[in-house]
Design goal:
Helix 1 packs across helix 6 (about 170-185). The chain is built from 7 helices and 7 strands. Strands 1, 2, 3, 4, 5, 6 and 7 form a 7-stranded mixed β-sheet that branches. The longest helix has 20 residues, at about 20-40. By secondary structure, the chain is an alpha/beta fold.
């Protein structure tokens, strides 16, 4: 009897093609699959949902209340996944409108208890706070179980291996992917509540944090 595959769905809200947001989603999914392959004797299926391809369908659904087939399948894939990776570019100190519009269409009980890895991309490291101030609260509201390590990739992170004081992007990706894999595999769930600063957090002066997070 064939063992049912574990399903990981990555949602990418990147708008360009190619997209650093999609690249980050792919690398996080690969890290989770690699860890699961080591820890679990089960196949792993990865599906990446590109929201840019569903933008018109999302808008139509918000207006009419009826999702086209492709969007309906994407929503079902998220709801039935064993684990979810959610990645958005940073726009105006928050996740993108397309990202929020998609998750507005997810039933409010569909993500209850589901392991979720959150990540974001942006041009500057100062916007890394979007993960804790915007994305983590969103998925806490949806009652998902968010892994402790969130991953932010600024432009300068690509190609950087870190230094003696901080981990580089590849290390953060491996750690976050491993945490998601352990949750999917039945490991100890992590709280979506606030946590102490770790190696993945950018240290930014408080005055600068306020300036970056101010909504116009």
């Amino acid at each position: 009897m064939q063992t049912e595959a574990l399903k990981i769905v990555a949602v990418s809200a990147g708008l360009s093609q190619p997209s650093s947001t999609r690249l980050l989603a792919d690398r996080l999914a690969a890290a989770a699959r690699e860890r699961l392959a080591t820890d679990q004797d089960r196949p792993v299926e990865i599906r990446v949902i590109e929201l840019r391809d569903l933008a018109v369908d999302i808008a139509n659904h918000l207006v009419t209340g009826f999702p086209p087939q492709a969007l309906d399948e994407a929503i079902d894939a998220v709801a039935t996944a064993d684990g979810l990776i959610a990645v958005s570019p940073v726009f105006t100190a928050s996740y993108s409108g397309l990202f929020k519009s998609f998750f507005d269409l997810i039933d409010h009980t569909a993500l209850t208890g589901k392991p979720v890895l959150i990540a974001a991309t942006g041009g500057t490291a100062r916007h890394s706070l979007v993960l804790e101030h915007a994305m983590r609260p969103l998925f806490a509201y949806l009652r998902a179980t968010v892994v402790p390590t969130s991953v932010y990739a600024a432009s300068e992170d690509w190609g950087s291996s870190g230094d003696e004081y901080t981990e580089g992007l590849p290390s953060r990706i491996r750690r976050a992917g491993g945490e998601l894999a352990r949750m999917i595999g039945g490991g100890r769930a992590a709280s979506g509540a606030s946590r102490a600063l770790g190696l993945d957090d950018e240290v930014v002066p408080f005055e600068q944090q306020l300036a970056d997070l101010r909504l116009d």
